[in-house]
Design brief:
With 253 residues, the protein is of the alpha/beta class. The protein is 35% helix and 18% strand. The longest helix has 17 residues, at 161-177. The structure holds adenosine-5'-triphosphate and magnesium ion.
Length: 253
């Protein structure tokens, strides 16, 4: 698929001949140089924009309009300050399942809040929580309506390294508890290897698929896996690919 933005300076081609396939129930991590078109890709997958050429398919259906069956989380969790954490998590259910009884909505939200360790904070306002806790709440909100596809655009990018690793494990546990298909945009190669079943490297703008790596690590990963020679090899390969994508041909400087 391809896509260009109309700007004052003319057409800006952002995606060009990009092909991405994510098998149902698997986790794809997408990495690529800054500004190459990763966020654009997420908007196309969610149906928020239409590609100029090509098609987006989700679970056997062509995407032509915004999809309710998609869950999204971003770098800065956009939680509504006038709502409690619980009411924030429930929000997608109000839109997707307006007839669902309140008790069921609350039970569903609490189930997720429990999985991410936020029970006891459900009645707090977003500003009363730490950045990591807010991102946990945002993950709950993106999953509350059991989306077909979860789209994550650098959700852990603004967090410190320890909190980030904590959230990787939370993400792994959430997936174990209720499988979903996920597309994660990230700048962190360790994150892509820890969470991904495959890592897709995009070229510089206009982005196309430059390299796809199947992450051949045990499904039940712990952070230790990142210190194995196998993971080190993968990280090395990915780093070289990113350098190529940045047009630096694998040379360090
Ligand atoms: N609505 C828009 N109108 C015009 N140009 C845009 C628009 N949105 C993005 N762009 C441009 O398209 C290119 C790709 O943007 P995009 O946000 O998809 O990149 P990205 O890969 O997500 O970058 P980053 O890694 O910095 O988040 C950039 O050059 C950006 O300036
Ligand atoms: Mg982006």
């Amino acid at each position: 698929m391809s896509h260009a933005y109309k700007t004052k300076g003319g057409l800006l081609p952002v995606l060009d001949g990009l092909e991405v396939a994510v098998p149902e129930g698997t986790f794809a991590a997408v990495v690529g140089p800054s500004g190459c078109g990763k966020s654009t890709l997420t908007k196309l997958v969610a149906g928020l924009m239409k590609p100029d050429t090509g098609e987006v398919w989700l679970h056997g259906e062509r995407v032509t309009a915004p999809r309710k069956t998609v869950g999204m989380a971003f770098q800065n969790p956009v939680l509504l300050e006038w709502r409690s954490i619980l009411e924030n998590v429930i929000l997608p259910l109000e839109i997707v399942a307006p007839k669902m009884p309140r008790a069921r909505r609350v039970a569903r939200a609490m189930e997720l809040l429990e999985m991410v360790g936020l029970v006891g904070f459900e009645n707090k306002r977003p500003s009363e929580l730490s950045g990591g806790m807010r991102q946990r709440a945002s993950l709950c909100r993106s999953l509350v309506h059991k989306p077909e596809v979860l789209i994550l655009d650098e959700p852990f990018g603004a967090l410190d390294a320890f909190t980030r690793e904590d959230l990787w494990q939370t993400m792994r546990d959430l997936r174990r508890a209720e499988p979903f298909t996920a597309v994660l945009i990230t700048h962190d190669l360790r994150e892509s290897v820890f969470l991904g079943d495959q890592v897709i490297v995009l070229s510089g703008r206009p982005a196309r698929t430059q390299y796809v790596m199947d992450v051949d690590l045990p499904e039940d990963r712990t952070l230790d896996v990142l210190f194995t020679p196998q993971a080190a090899g993968m990280l090395h390969t990915l780093r070289d690919q990113i350098k190529i994508a940045q047009g630096r041909g694998g040379k360090d400087h």
